[in-house]
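Worked example (supplementary).
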Amino acid sequence: MTVLSVKQVTIKPNLYFDSATLMALAQKAKGLEGVIEAVAVMATGANKEILANVGLLDDSASEGTARDLILAVRAENSQALSQAMVLLEDSLNRKPEQKNSGDVRQPRSLHEALKENPELNLAVISVPGQFATYEAKKALKAGLHVMLFSDNVPLAKEIELKKLASKKGLLMMGPDCGTAIISGTPLAFANVVRRGNIGVVAAAGTGLQEITALVDRWGGGISQAIGTGGRDVMGAVGGLQFLQGMKALLADPDTQVIVLTGKPPASEVEMRILELVAKAGKPVVVNLLGGNRQAVIQAGGIYAASLEEAARLALEASGISVEHHWFESALVSEAAVGFAPEQRWLRGLYTGGTLCYEAQLVLSGELGEIYSNTPLRKELTLRDSKLSFGHTVVDLGDDEFTRGRPHPMIEPSTRGERIAAEAEDPQVAVLLMDFVLGYGAHREPVDAVAEQLTQTMARALERGGKLVVVASVTGTEADPQGFVRQTQKLRKLGVYVLPSNYQAAAFAAAVIKGLGRAES
Amino acid sequence: MINTLFANKVRVMNIGLPGFARDLQEAGVEVVHVDWTPPAGGDEAVFNLLEEIEPLQGEIDKANAKALENLLKADPVLIGLGFAGQVIPGLPPRTLLHAGPPLSWEKMCGPVRGATIGAIMYEGWADTPTEAEMLAASGEIGFAPCHHFGAVGPMAGVISPSMPVYIVENRAFGNLAYSSLNEGLGKVLRFGAYGPEVLQRLRWLRDQFYPVVKDAIEKAGGIELKNITSQALQMGDECHNRNKAATALFFRELAPFLVATNYPIDQIQRVLEFIRGNEHYYLNISMAACKASLDPAIDIPYSTMVTTMARNGTEFGIQVSGLGNQWFTAPAMPVKGLYFPGFSEADANPDLGDSSITETCSIGGFAMASAPAIVKFVGGSPGDAQNYTRSMYEITLGESLSYSIPNLDFRGTPTGIDMIKVLETDVLPVINTGIAHREPGVGQIGAGLVNPPRECFVKALQIFANRYQKGV
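After joint prediction of all chains, the assembly is encoded as:
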């Protein structure tokens, strides 16, 4: 049976909006009754290809350039079609707040901004990837430190930028750096944490967030938290920013303890990192996930096997002792009771890449094979990332899920959809999730998925079993979302909330093991 | 230095997603949001070229600073009048100068044809329009851009050897520039008219007007032009399309010296009357002053400053400092404006004249904020005039030290068009211009705004990239 549909494609020449605004808009239009697909994108080569693939590119749209806006809608009937187009057009006509005609013109370029505001010292750059290098280079040449949020920047360009930054003694955080806290300033996706004497260098965004949030919650503070982007510790980049960041923290009088975190670096980079650790006059906690414990200890560093442990050991090194709470076995027993006989699988639905990775490390140690779209080993790659298999832990923030859709930390509906999808599988026993707070993230992350969680849990009960949902909250009380508030909301839904991602994963593994099912 | 940053407050420039700026504001952080759009208007080929020459930016900046400095230093003074064939160096015999980039007889638009015919008859090289046409087509007459000989002319801009020209000296560097005398409005040579009354007026200018004015200027010891232009800009002129105030100021400067010459009083009276009756009289002088100001900025290696913008009625041409006297041309754009009663776009000649040298020199359309009256030609408001000038700051290297705009808190006019900035921001220079009728001899039929074709700048960038990357 074919579904009849109507469509409309409109091109608006020389009308630019950023991708975040456009995606939010398209989402709204898609939510209207009878609308099958709604797209609002700038007419870049990549976007035109995507539109062509779904039959939403016409001749005039194909002539467009990156400065022209394409609106495309497919709907079940013409009424829905026009409703969607009207919504899109109206929203675009309403001038964004920055463009009020009564106000002074906003600067249109880096140079204009700097001319009018010469005291600016750090550029946060989040333009589309193909223009990111151009802007970042301009910023560095103008003597600004840079946080480069943009991704899709070629490795060769990253190296070029970091070499330039090294020469000028500037921070060049990124590309693909989503998190940093500099001099108490939360940048992009970052938490509001107490100022203190623990400094962090992170090649991992949510890793930085988890560590800094735990430090804050457990009574300490952060001097600086420097992000380097995920590729910095690769052999080709040579850890340029990671090492530069370390040196800066070593020379910083306000930093008394240093934490290093990220995925394992290339061996020559690891060597250089440990060389610095060996000469450091300050305690250095090393949490290179899955990295070499012996080498760290030999270099005189403090080895931390998890993000949680890194935070705790850093606090202790700074003179703050942390009461370590581990979950009670009674809690595990209570959770492991009441499942239906066919229930056996764990499904981790993550928004933070590092948190997803850490969970997999814990779970694979306890449960064996963990499938993922970002697996620990190639053989464990999901054939279809949208379809879980066995024990599965997915990173919903990975590129393949965020093409044309906002990141799940910003717009939780992707995760909501996945929660509902897992509800269809009667063999699912445990859901494991992260809730990342702070600036940049959705202001009500729990509310945004509450309905799907409730429905999914109810569905399991209908089948004569139950669904155990385990979560951790990466955040602080001072975050806009409020750590306590979000934790309470989760608990009210019947979710087990653990104090850290590490513990949440361990708890989830314990519950599965408590089911006593044989390996399938 | 990173540790310096640690010791200070972070002050953020946000380029990209506006949400980050909003969050930072909420967090109480000092943040400036840049209203960013893709560079080069989304044109990938141009963007790639810009990226290619980016490593040269240091050299380019140094060279542009020099070019701008030379321009800002300019001190144009009207020092006299002379006959083109006698005072313009190197002018070959039987050669006619014209506005804009190089042009052949075959390609000439109506007004330029007409002006050529008129000039040939004025010189006595032919007696009738038909003969003049044949001569022009024969190849015996040389045609060259005014610019090639240090001269400028409005509209058709035709200068022939026996025509009187202004001589302007840039006292900061000693270089000279020339331009024709403004004949007035309506049926005049520069709009392509060549009837008996046109020739009669040209002869009067040569025989009666010229000697008196030449004498007066010399008696005055020269007339300082920067002074007049800068005062005029504060009196509602922009010195391209509105010259009323400048003409009045010039008249005031010159009048006593005209009377002091020993010519018969009725001759002097007709001279005074001629200037008084032409509210655009100062235009040609303004143009020569701009030409004299810009010439010392030509040929500075690595400089991307635009030193000329000119039109010949068919093509628009620009020159860029670091690329010397090479022309970068493209078909001229239509003018967006209002037409006098009885005329319409169908009657309009494409953009024409050397008068865009004024915009190149930071006045004219660049000073539109000073001349709100201009915007009625584009159906806009005085606020629009201000915004036009404001947007020119995005594409220029600096601001004038002498020409300032009261409406913008006396900010200096946007000075030194940067070819790179034009392409990067996709903002084209704005030019205030008159619109000529496409038929020779009808005259001005309207006025409005026009831009140079983007293609001129793209061509210039391509050549610049080739020349300076390969060290040619």
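Two points are worth noting when inspecting this output. Residues 123 and 139 of chain A are 7 Å apart (CA to CA). The first strand of chain A starts at residue 6 and ends at 12.
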